[in-house]
Each structure stands twice: as C-alpha cells, then as structure tokens.
Amino acid sequence: MFPASFEYVRAHTTDEAFAALQQHGFDGRVLAGGQSLIPAMRYRLARPAVLVDINPIKDLEFLKEENGFLRIGATTRDAALEFAPWILQRYSLITAVSKVVADPIVRHMGTVVGSVCHNDPAGDWTATSLASRAVMVVRGKNGLREVPIDEFLVDSYTTAVEEGEMALELKIPIPDAHTQGSYQKIERKVGDYATCAAAVQISLNADGTIRQAGIAITAAGPIAMRVAAAEAMLVGQKPSLELIKAAAAEAPKIASPNADQRGSSEYKKDMTRVLVGRGITEALQRLGVNA
Amino acid sequence: MNEIPVSIKINGKQVTASVESRTLLVHFIREQAELTGTHVGCDSSSCGVCTVLLDGDKPVKSCTMFAVMAHGHEITTVESLAPGGVLHPLQQAFWDQHGLQCGYCTPGMLMTSVALLKHNPNPTEHEIREGLSGNLCRCTGYNNIVKSIQQAAGVMSQAIPAAADD
Question: How far is B133 from chain A (nearest CA, A)?
C-alpha cells in the first residue's frame, strides 16, 4: 500500500535537520534508513506529517574509535559494521548481531542508531546496546547530551528523544582484550521478528573472575530488557556451569513475552533462559574459558 | 500534493520527474523510468523481488525507499545486465541451471547475486544461501538458484583474472 502523504524535508547538515525538527515538533520525524519506518508507513501504522531526511548529511555517516568508544553515526548502515574487518576481529558481540539483523539487503539501508531509536520490542541493536552499555548522543534545545542506554529505552517505540530532538550517534565502550560477547537469536526465518534473542558480553579479571557482565533479552516483553539479577550474580565470581545455569534462570523471571505464531509465552520465557545460558557459555569460550 | 522534483541516474540515464514525496523508488523505476524488470512482490519488505543496486554495489529493496531518497544517486536495475542482448554470466547461468520456474523473483535474485559476487567473487554454498536470504522464491526451492550462482562465479572469475595482490 502507499504511505499517507507527508511533507519531505531534505537536510544536508545537522543544523538543517535540527531546525526542521524544532519547527515541526511532534509532527516531524527523522528518516534515516527507513527500513522500519517505511514499512510502518505503508501499513499506515505510522503517519508522520513531516519527514526530515538525514541521509544526505555526510557528517553523520561514520564508524570510528575515539576516546575509548566505538562511535556509530546516525546514518551509518548495519552493513558498514558487518563488512568492517576490524569490527570482525575485535567486536564479537557486534559481529554476531550484524549478521542476523533483518536480512542482508535490508542491512545495506538500515541504520544502527535508527534501529535503537525505533525501539522495537524485538530489536537486536537495543539488546546489544544494553549488553555493551552504550550511550546515545542526543541533540536538544540546550545542546548535546549523552543518555545511557538504560535511560534511553523508555517503552515500546518510545525513547528519551523528546519533541524536536534528534539522536546523532551511538557510543559503545571499546571492549578490552578480556571482553567477549555473544548474540543468540531464534527466528523462524531470516527477516522475521525474533522468536526470542539474548545479547551477552562478559569481561574477566586477570584472576579469571568475572569483572563485568552485560546481559539483555529481546522479543521477550514490551522492550529489550537488562537481566540485572543475572549480571549481579556473575560479577566477582569464577565461571562455572552452576553459576551460568543460575544466572540464566533469572531471565524468565523478568520476561513477559506475548504468545503468537512464534510460540507460547511459556516457550518464549524458557527460551530466554536457554539463550542467556548459551550466550554466557559462548562468550566465556571466546575468552578461553570452558565452564 | 507534495510534488518534488527527483532526478536519478538509472542504468546510466538521468531520469527526472516531479513525484509525490510518498512515491516509492520501485514505482519511480517502473512508472517514470518505464523499466518494468524490477518487480513488486510482497509489499512488506520481505521478498526482495524489487532489489536494485544503489550507487553501484549496494543492494536495496526499492519498495522500502522513497524515490526522493535516491535523488542525486545512481540506480542499477536488471535491464542493465544484458547490453546488446548478450546475457550477463549470471543470467546465462540461471538459464543453464534452470535457476527459475515462474521467473517472478529472478530480477531480485539477479541483482542481489551481482552485489554478492562483487563483494565475494568466490562464495561458498553457505555464503550464497546466506547472501540470498533476503530474497524469496516460491517455486524452485533454491537449489538451482544456488547452482546458477556457483556457475556464474566460476565463469566470472575465469573471465577476469584476479589481480596479483588479490
């Protein structure tokens, strides 16, 4: 179906885009890759009055490491991460995610920042951002502010980006040599919404105990969720099979998945346990630890 | 009506028209450029029959892009593959290996494969299947499509010797 009519604003600079968004307020919406927004508009689930196209803004298309962070610009495509050899070598969580988001064609247009801003209940990048403790840079009336991902993700399709504001980049702390991740996703077929997925990132101390753990589940409730109890259980401990099982068992306690054609609520809840367990196990294996 | 001038270089030819902002790229290609090789399939960004190349090597679903977003860019469609009627090695391979039955998905399969072989001239079977996972075919069961791409990869790597430092 055709989308409803809208006014199109082509922005060439961040200033132009921001001015247009300020002018149009809640009527305005940022158009980045459009791989979620355009289908939603075609189904008339979304009817923005004004679209501000940020694709021509060259300054927002970047993927670089700076001051301890991997910086991903607002128009940087998923494929840019998927095909960067240095990402493949050093970012195991991001590498795993970048191969399973949507399908290979969609990844050439879809953006990481756009996906996090869309905040779909089944988003892959939202769960990844939680596990890797990302920060979103948002431009507002009072200038730039950095919003930790836990505060950024407010509710289904709702983020900390307020009326007239725009997200400029996602910052992910650079994993050190003792940090590895894993992404576990069940989907009926490529391109479908996940039945359930889990993002895991583990950092070890020199003595082999767990220094930091990032664990998030997605497609398991209204929003991607941090399994904080599992993280707390892991930190400071030596990895063991019992510990992994106990941590994984925390995931279903916070999951509230809807039953649909992909499975019953009970099944999906149990899959959060299974996927978190597999994710922790794989991250540890990548760190050379077989629990 | 929000009509906006849009100018896109399609298969090397500049096509300029005023269209509504909500016009999808696939409709611009079919109706303004009058190139109907690019098909519309699922209407839900799933099937990939509308796949075209953006700026030379990026496969995109032209049903999930507004024409205004392609303004000033280059688009390559399936019509560009056989200049002078000489089939592209991929087209020849789809013919030889029976890589199609009804043929509806073929333009998308071809364009995705062109991009796939540009990125990865010698893909494994697994890489081919993964690379095509955004394209649906409801008749062939994919085996012959995979064989077609394997044949084309072989032909194309013979035709263009790899550079010494490749």
Answer: 6
The amino acid present at A101, given as its one-letter code, is: V
A-chain CB neighbours of B58 within 8 Å are 79, 108-109
Q: What's the CATH fold of domain A60-173?
A: 3.30.465
ipTM for the predicted complex comes to 0.94
- The class level of CATH for A7-53 reads alpha beta
Q: Are B99 and A73 in contact (CB under 8 A)?
A: no
Rounded distance, CA A105 to CA A274, Å? Answer: 29
Domain check: are B70 and B139 in the same one? Answer: no
pLDDT digits (tens, 9 = 90+) for A95-138: 999 999 999 999 999 999 999 999 999 999 999 999 999 999 99
CATH number of the domain within which B38 lies = 3.10.20.30
For residue A242, give how far its alpha carbon lies from the nearest alpha carbon of chain B (Å): 35
Cα gap B154→B166, rounded to integer Å: 16
CB-based contact B77:B29 (threshold 8 Å)? yes
Look at residue B87 and tell me if it is in a domain.
yes
Look at residue B123 and give its three-state secondary structure: coil
Residues of B within 8 A of A190 (CB-CB) are 133-134
pLDDT tens digits, B104-131: 999 999 999 999 999 999 999 999 999 9
